[in-house]
Amino acid sequence: MYHKTDVHIGRRLRERRMALGMSQAELAEGLGISFQQVQKYESGANRISGSRLWDIASILQTPVSYFFEGLEEAPVEAGEGGASSKPLDRNTLELARAVNSIPDESVKTQLVRLVKAFAKAS
To answer: What's the pTM value of the predicted model, to 2 decimals?
Structure first.
């Protein structure tokens, strides 16, 4: 069974990496490790040491504290390798990145309302 802290940190790692549009291979290259190791970090299968977390935070241009945000509210794991809450998928993160790139706040607001209406209708 994976530890909920490792799963949470891995989820935050994946979300930040994807928000930047970075592949696992690109992150792995920056860290000097294999992309498979990045996969293990993201799933919580392998723990991330303090020095490695520091390097990851530097590459992902975020403070180390980012990886611990929301940990107090993180759900208890639902079984081996997974937490009970669903991590954000690639489409969700790509949509968020695209919306954030829109400079006009009123357009952003209208777009969010549109997406919510689609979600409610389905």
So the answer is: 0.68
**pLDDT at residue 39, as a whole number:** 95
- Please report, for residues 14, 28, 76, 114, the alpha-carbon distance to residue 8 in angstroms, rounded to integers and kept in the order given: 10, 19, 10, 30
22 secondary structure, DSSP code: -
Instruction: State the distance between the two ends of the chain, measured CA to CA, in whole angstroms.
Output: 35
Burial of 47 (0-12, 13-18, 19+ CB in 10 A): middle
Here the tokens at position 113 are 């309302």
The percent of residues in the chain predicted with pLDDT above 70, rounded, is 88
Residue 53: exposure state from Cβ atoms within 10 A (0-12, 13-18, ≥19)? middle
pLDDT for 11 equals 93
